[in-house]
Amino acid sequence: MKAQGNSKERTAIAMLVLALLLLAQAKTVCLRTVRQARESVLEQDLQEMRKAIDVYTLKNEPPPQPLNDLADGNFLRAIPADPKTLRVIGLRNSMTWNQPQNNV
Prior knowledge:
The chain is an all-alpha fold.
């Protein structure tokens, strides 16, 4: 009888290990899917902002200095947040666009 009980315990442990392995795999797939969705949203937001900056620049000559000009001028509804950090894209503490410096 002891051998039969031992066999049931081994089967139960094997089933538990298998279940844990499946859960670990499911978690990995879920996290990858969430990351890809966030990256897709970020890419779409950046494309939308690029188009809005281009239209703004054609109408107003210089590019928008604070990105809020895009929203204020109805070129965008609002400045989108980065889905990874939930911070507003392209803004610094001064709320201005980061322009590259030309050091000649």
